[in-house]
Amino acid sequence: MINSKLKYHALSDEIQQKIINDRRNGWINPYRFNDENAVRRNNNHDKANLWRPTFVRDAEKILHLPLYNRYSDKTQVFSFYNNDDLSRRALHVQLVSRIARNIGSVLGLNLDLIEAIALGHDIGHTPFGHAGERFLNELYHNETGRYFNHNVHSARVLDKMFARNITLQTLDGILCHNGEFEQQEYKPDCSKNFEAFDNEIESCYIHGNSAIKKLIPCTLEGCVVRICDMIAYLGKDRQDARKAKIIDDNQTFSNNKIGKENAAIINNLTVDIIENSYGKDFILLSESAYDDLKTAKQENYEIIYRNERINKQYEDVIKPMFAEIYYKLLDELKNKDENSIIYKHHITFMDKELKYYRDVNYLDEEPNQIVVDYIASMTDDYFIELHKLLFPNSKYIIEYHSYFE
Question: Angle between the 111-120 and 89-107 helix axes, to the nearest 10 degrees?
Answer without folding.
Answer: 160
